[in-house]
Amino acid sequence: MTQTGIDVSEHNGEIDWKKVAEEGIGFAIIRAGYGSAYLDSRFYENVNGAHDAGLKLGVYHFGYARHGGELEVERNFLLSILKDCGLMPKHLPLGVFWDVEEDSYRGREFPRPGVINRMCHAFCEGTAAAGYRAGIYASASWLQSYIKAAEFAGHTLWAAQWWKECTVKEAGIWQFTDHLEVAGHIFDGNRILEKTDGDE
Predict the structure, then answer these.
(1) What are the beta bridge partners of residue 60?
(2) Residues 70-83: b if buried by 16+ CB within 10 A, e if exposed
(3) What pTM did the predictor assign?
(4) Residue 90 CA to chain centroid, in angstroms?
(5) What is the C-alpha separation between 76 and 80, in angstroms, rounded?
(6) What are the C-alpha distances in Å from 144 to residues 13, 139, 162?
(7) How many angstroms separate the Cα of 39 from the Cα of each of 33, 50, 111, 114, 141?
(8) Which of 27, 148, 170, 193 is the most buried (most CB within 10 A)?
(9) For residue range 43-80, what is the model confidence (pLDDT) as tens digits?
């Protein structure tokens, strides 16, 4: 499997997935949505396009939850989206990720580190119980401090660190840049750091 991939959302606009594959991209992690009710407007289009182009797939969901109850609602919403479009675990070998980022700029009070850690565990446990490979996306600093990467053996950690190397030794996927030019678009660029179920 080609080890370089991209992650995408509606903000990337229309994508020529065939051309993306022709330029050597081997996988895509596609945003399903965010919060408890927002479906990314290009989710179905991106999933179908990437699948038809032969790319390996993963899905991520931007988290807004501030406590366990909200996390459960978000996770259930995400799982309902996957079920609705027929994305079974076998179709998502890279996994299903909860995207955890600081978002106080939206005027919301962000949870304490201990709450973030517990929500990440709850997301992974509930998603894995549904049969999917589960994971967490966050910055390298958050994975090493708030989320405590060492506690997530058996799940996939996707680390954002736009540097010469990934310093999160537990990470399975590394988002190494926010400026990878592919098929006339600029994407976040990612690399596989360990063998996953998506490898051949």
Answers:
(1) 31, 97
(2) bbbebbebbbebbe
(3) 0.93
(4) 16
(5) 6
(6) 33, 9, 15
(7) 4, 18, 24, 28, 28
(8) 27
(9) 999 999 999 999 999 999 999 998 999 999 999 999 99
